[in-house]
Specification:
83 residues, mainly alpha, elongated
Amino acid sequence: MENPSVPVMSIKDWMITILVTAIPLVGFVMLFVWAFGGGSTNPNKQNWAKATLIWFAIVIALYLIILMVFGAAFLSNYDDFDF
């Protein structure tokens, strides 16, 4: 259920959020903290973090599928090379 008393995140809050997520590894960990860290996180940021993690999972899955397809194609032609 939506809570009408939730404060709107300011532009400054979003700028800091995006800056923190741009830091390698720290940003990835912070996405988990914001997404599943409890009630202290603004619900807007919490939903954004969950959506971002879902996009990461989709991109990684697509990357692995493409890697497997091209890897299988490369390995199927591996016997054709004369070293």
